[in-house]
Design a protein that fits this description.
The protein is α/β, with parallel strands linked by helices and 231 residues long. Helix content is 30%, strand content 21%.
C-alpha cells in the first residue's frame, strides 16, 4: 500500500466484537470527533505513540490463518484512513472475514469502505439533532445518520448500537432514538453502557446509573428483530 494503515493497538482474540466469530481487533489511529465518553482517547490523534506497523499486522494474521475467523477494523474511526479499503482487501485475501466498527463520521469515506465489509457494528451516537452534545462537533448528527442510511441500503450485515451515559442521554430520549431507528428500518439494536474507567471528558461522573428500566428494555425489545443490552 502506498499509504499504510496506521494501527494504534490490537486485541489478538475476541468473541465480542464480531458476533459469532473468533476475531482479532485492529484499533485504527485517528478520529475527527471528541466524544465525551470516549474510552480510547489515545486513538484520537492522527498519529499514535505506540503504532503497530502493517507488516507486523500481516505477519500476525498469517500465523493465525485457520485459527481466527475474522478481523475487525475499529478505532478511532477506521474509515478516515484512505488506505482502509486496500487493507480490508488484503485481510480478505488471507481468508478472513472482515468486520468494521464505525460511526460514519464522513459518509463518503464510509461508503468507500462498506463494500469491503462482511459485517458492520455501527455507532448511532444520539438523535441526529443532539449528536454534537456528545461528539462536540457541529454537523456530526447529519453525518452519523446519513451513513446509517448508506449502511441500511447496502445489504451488509450489521448491528446498530448506542453507548449510554445517563448524563448525556436519558431514558425518554433513548426511547425516541430507538423509535426513529425502527422507523428507518433498523432490525438489530444494542444498548451498551459506557465504560467509565477512562473517559475523554474527565468531568463526566463515573458510574452514573438509572433504576427502574425493565419497562424500557421490554419496549425496545419489541421494536427490533433483535435487541441486546450490554454492560
Amino acid at each position: 500500500m502506498s499509504r499504510q494503515l496506521r494501527v494504534g493497538g490490537m486485541v489478538p482474540l475476541t468473541t465480542l466484537d464480531y458476533p459469532g466469530k473468533l476475531a482479532c481487533v485492529l484499533f485504527c489511529q485517528g478520529c475527527a470527533w471528541r466524544c465525551r465518553y470516549c474510552h480510547n482517547p489515545q486513538l484520537i490523534p492522527p498519529r499514535g505513540s505506540q503504532e503497530i506497523t502493517w507488516q507486523q499486522v500481516l505477519a500476525f494474521l498469517e500465523r493465525r490463518q485457520g485459527l481466527l475467523d475474522a478481523v475487525v477494523f475499529s478505532g478511532g474511526e477506521a474509515t478516515l484512513q484512505d488506505s482502509l479499503p486496500e487493507a480490508m482487501a488484503q485481510v480478505r485475501q488471507l481468508g478472513f472475514g472482515v468486520g468494521l466498527h464505525s460511526a460514519g463520521i464522513k459518509p463518503a469515506a464510509f461508503a468507500r469502505a462498506l463494500p469491503g465489509a462482511d459485517w458492520v457494528g455501527f455507532d448511532v451516537k444520539a438523535l441526529a439533532e443532539e449528536c454534537a452534545l456528545i461528539t462536540r462537533v457541529q454537523g456530526s448528527g447529519v453525518a452519523n445518520w446519513r451513513s446509517l442510511e448508506l449502511l441500511l441500503a447496502s445489504g451488509v450485515e450489521y448491528e446498530c448500537r448506542t453507548t449510554v451515559h445517563w448524563q448525556l442521554i436519558d431514558p425518554p430520549r433513548l426511547l425516541i432514538l430507538a423509535q426513529r431507528l425502527s422507523e428507518r428500518g433498523v432490525k438489530h439494536f444494542v444498548v451498551q453502557h459506557v465504560r467509565s474507567a477512562t473517559m475523554l471528558d474527565v468531568d463526566l461522573p463515573r458510574g452514573a446509573t438509572q433504576h427502574g428500566l425493565p419497562v424500557l428494555w421490554d419496549t425496545l425489545s419489541r421494536l427490533f428483530t433483535t435487541f441486546e443490552l450490554r454492560g
